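Table S2 (text version). Query chain:
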Amino acid sequence: MATPKLRFKEFDGYLEKNNLINLTLWASGGTPSKKNKDYWMGDIPLISGASMHTRKICESEFNITDLGLKKGSKLAPKNSILILVRGSMLFKKIPMGMALKDVAFNQDVKSIITKEDLNEYYFFQWLLSQENIIQNKVTSTGIGAGKLDTSELQNLEIYYPAKEEQTKIATFLSAVDTKIDELTQKHELLTEYKKGMMQQLFSQKLRFQADDGSDFEDWEYMSLHEVLDYEQPTRYIVKTTDYDDSFKTAVLTAGKSFILGYTNEDNDIFEADNKNVIIFDDFTTAYKFVDFPFKVKSSAMKILQTKSKNYDIFYIYSVFSTINIQKGDEHKRRWISEYSQIEVPIPSLPEQTKIANFLTAIDQKIDNVAEQIDHAKTWKKGLLQQMFV
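Corresponding structure-token output:
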């Protein structure tokens, strides 16, 4: 029989082994007819794959009534575990969470209730530890979505200790989750604070003063092409496809991924030292502030630099957030034709610098909290691997 690598010292002995089908109760959900208004706009959240973006499930974009529940859905009581068994996101991750209150759920979701031998939170954490195994069981529906076979999930084997040890493990991991939640909330609050301060600063409701206490001069409004030069990154194109995180030069690409990987090529590298830049993606209209050496994979970019020392590049980058940048047509180059023509507020260089330094300090706090969250999640992942067999 198996034993976990990491265990509280007061417990010993082997674990019990059983299949989930013998320890849990499973239910399928449904969706009431959308043609009947009496089924909708009630107080019961209807959970679908789109609702399962968090491990704590309690709300949905769509709510149903008691009548809608009776006529087409199913209720998952508080502390049930919900797992998505059909949907395209299954190819990337396995959405699952615990219901914080009674919720309804649709036909793409299964609810699981533990029987007497299993602590529900212990079982939920065990499920999280098995995500990679569950991921390997995803198959295609043939229409672009993934699916999980319920009988395969029910036949998974679980090793579990006595209820007292389960409860202690559940309590400990709950405390870890609470810490991660607190850090996540702190990150969200800092992000909202920065957003609010930027609104105040760029609307000039909040102004800095010069070091001698005097007011800075009035702001000008200038088009971005008057402030920024652009360079097409053709000469910095990376030639290899051999990327490794141990290499030192980042390879940038268009789109959300941005850093594709790292290369050991040492020729034609854009050295950002003392000339930090903004990378603008013509196709997706995404933009990033870059202060490190790089090469690029995609030529669908512009490297934006200030035209003179009268402009602070990080201030200009911060101004970008005030521009209503829409997702672009993927086959249209937009910098010259559209975005370079936009007018933005330009204070004097000393005030630009004060604003840039202020926002940089907030960014550093946000980044520090994000790093703490990543470390906490990595630590918890290691705990799951060692505390569960």
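Notes on Table S2: The longest helix spans residues 163-202. The radius of gyration is 27 Å.
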